[in-house]
Fold each of these.
Amino acid sequence: MKKEDNKLNLYFNDNKICEVKWIERPQYYDKKTTNGKDMVKMGQIGGDDCLFFCFQNYCANFKDNKQCKFCNLVSTSKTYNSVIRKKDVQDIGEVAAAAWSEGSVNHVNITGGCYISGKEVEVVSQIISSIKEHTGFEKVPGVILPAPAKGNNIQRYYDTGIQSLGYAMEVWDERTYKAVCPGKSATTSHDEFVESIEKAVEIFGRGHVYVAMVMGLETKETFLEGIRVLSSLGANVIPFVWTPNPGSKLEGHRAPSAEWYVETILEAAEIVYEYQVPWGTENHCYLCDGNSLLHDALRLKGIE
Ligand code: SF4
């Protein structure tokens, strides 16, 4: 990166790639809720227009040392201590209203770590009601990414008034999934994920269910097989690039080469394109944060 004429430019060796600009700091980051909480610690803008809430930074899998091997939720939370770990629903509604009134956001992404207690849908329902009450939305544009929603809970999530439902499936190959995600796979099997995603598409509609995968932990062959099956079910797939995060069990390991990522994502984009699942921009788009290469690969094919 070089500073030239008061601009920041990104270089690859001597070749200039593009100018880099910071996103504007939202005004609500300096405001407080009526409960006196710093709004910036409740919900943050991810990328350009996505309002992100993690309503509880906790995952039961860490308790038994069965966390997913790429995950550093607890270590990040301890290191930075920059967010309020358990958020009040009233505060969340107020932050949503403040962010929307500035015109800076278009959709929400709500996640709760992982409770695994069945209570989560009730908490989500209260949060969505609070957002509706404070913003005036009848249907909240955005996605909820809870512990894997199954059975009747899928309809209950739909009834909360959120537009899309997310599944963090992480890894497609069943044996790799069990090895990488020992806690999660003990409570939600590969087959349960697939059945639940199929049911969720029936309820929420094609393009209103999104499946988060971690790309780079399994072979290209099984990863692409997963992309094909999930696309054929009518789900959007968001493969995040695996980086061996500090504080995760895989800290210090090496991810595949950049070439592997590029080759694999271009093939994935061909598969996604073939199935023509409507791209729900309330799920995730190229302007959101997170490191999914699929958006760029699809943009090369004219899909934004
Ligand atoms: S389920 Fe896995 S990825 Fe999700 S918060 Fe828990 S350990 Fe992390």
Amino acid sequence: MPDRDDVNRGLPRVKPDTLVAFVLVHAVALLAVMPALFTWTGVAAFAAGHFVFGTLGINIGFHRLLAHRSFACPVWVERMLALFGTCSLQFSPAYWVAVHRRHHQFSDEPEDPHSPRRGLLWAHFGWLIARRPLDLKPTVLTWRYAKDMMRQPFYERLERKNVWAAVGLSVWILLYVAGFTAEALAGGTWMECGWFGSSLMVWGGALRTVVVWHSTWSVNSVAHVWGYRTHDTGDDSRNNPFVALIASGEGWHNNHHADPVSPRHGMQWWEIDVSWLVIRLMMALGLARPR
Ligand SMILES: [Zn+2]
Ligand SMILES: [Zn+2]
């Protein structure tokens, strides 16, 4: 194993384009504080988007299905979940999976892409906007850790020229157009159409994206620092009820590190695991089956 000081030598280099994108998305999400942009339809778009693109897309799709293959399902279900996850703007499916598999291989060791041992903020989002000398280049990372996905044209295409970002942002545009059109059909003025479209885009697009971002990032940061440990996993993973609440069960992270291929992360009756409940429902409906 390389020496910790040696492999961490050299300052991380900021990725300017990612940093600008992150600041912009947070800025648009902050517009939700404007009373003029508040609508109950916007809140509904936020809640529905949080479930579809966060719980179904990231927690069940990217994490439990694609990264760990913890359950099996028809290809069309997998692709749909992968597209939902892509709409959360957490990079492409193959890149997300590759980073996560490397995290499990080197949990809290120097090669771990996002260990809080380098700082809580580094684990939360620093690692996303900067690259350390020992971090692998994206193409090397994806081909080494997610070869099973990169060999499939569907995932390889999402990788190219930031196609994944276009897919994610198209949801924002669709929300704006839907709001604008609905208001126009209801006889609203141009101004009212613009405000309603913006409300859906800000609440259902930007704010939902930012909230899902911070929920996912909390698994990497908070759930490796605070919480209780049921298993001696050799890393810093914790079971954190707050993170489990905001990330649909992903906060039972110590359980997950102890048994990464289990589709169920909450093991006690009080460890509520919404993602597992949804997977069970999918199994009952014939949309998923045990691996
Ligand atoms: Zn972890
Ligand atoms: Zn995992």
